[in-house]
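Deliverable D5.2: sample structural annotation.
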Amino acid sequence: MPNSALSRRGFLASSGAALGAGMAAGQAAGANDRIRIGAIGTGSRGAAHLKGLAALSETHNVEVAAVCDVWRPNREGAAAAVEKAFGKKPFQTSRFGDVLARDDIDGVVIATPDFAHTPIMIEALKAGKDVYVEKPMSISLKNANKALDLARRHERVVQVGTQRRSEARWKAAHDFIASGKLGTVSWISAANCFNHPRWARDFSDCVEEDVDWDAYLFCRPKVPFDPRLLRRWHLYRMCTNGISGLWMTHLVDAAHMVMGSTYPSSAVAHGGIYVWKDGREHTDVFHALLDYPEGYLFDWAMTLTNASGTHYTVHGQYGILDLYACTYSGAGGLSGKAIEDGKLEAGPDGNHMGNWLDCMRSRERPVADIEFGHQHSVATIMAANALETGRRTRYDRKRRKLIED
């Protein structure tokens, strides 16, 4: 594909991004100050976040003041929903730089296709905005490193959309494992299995005159308008790194939570396109194995070709912890040391968006801080690279680089 005639720098300039606007680094909103949010990407996930923010309007003194989407129907629909929820018309634009240039925007929610998550976040951090960014935080290790450094340098509050970090069961699992009741844990096994084309969004109503195509491709190679790249972006390499980033993100982040892990030592992966010959460039069956220096193997599989169910089990010397059923048992445990069957006790879940807003005021780090986003990004990038190259991929923590065997 030819390089874009519209450079990233040129795009930002043309969209009016005055990078450097926003609150000064570390400045907290006062308890009585209304937090004003800009929504960047207002598709299905972005629309859900708008509803979540509306539900927090009074308790967290927040409003959505700007909406940005490259596709006019999404943008106008979001603007109408915001006006109904908050009683004010929001600023509308197809270019995220216009949102970042506004002095009245304190933070942004980024819910675009995967490839734009970190590039937009980087510009938001430069502009002094706090950020809520959807997962995977990054599909580029270089960008992940840059974003983490910027967030720390500018003391920005970044919440990543790995919402399991606000679910009580995973903290309870961490405490259960840390207590030693399972014995030494050596294997975590997880799988997600579906058998229907959940990605097959209709694109017949997505026409070129309704799309700011240059804005969509701002950091990608210039290609002719193709509605499938907008509506079915999950299928294409220029938009995402596939099942690893789209799905494994949540499950590997959960492993980091329950085991107190940070980065894998190595990853291998395999997969293929076995059933869905629909022009996709990513596999419909994927299997990855990640080895951790804490001494366990994370095993994750996904299929889009058979609905055989999901599971998330932690295997120790004395039994198994089932994180979906929230139960534990002595199955497979050492004779005489196997644990008795029981129910994992967990408290109430937290509000992921609410936690971000709270931290915007306190300047504390949220539950899914960018540090954890960097960790899950590394893990999923390693798995995607292993699949792409057919080689085991290792991670050098000191140099923050991938190494292929």
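Annotation notes: The chain has two domains: 8-164+355-369, 168-200+230-347+378-404. The first helix runs from residue 8 to 14.
The annotation will be released with the project's public dataset once the embargo ends.
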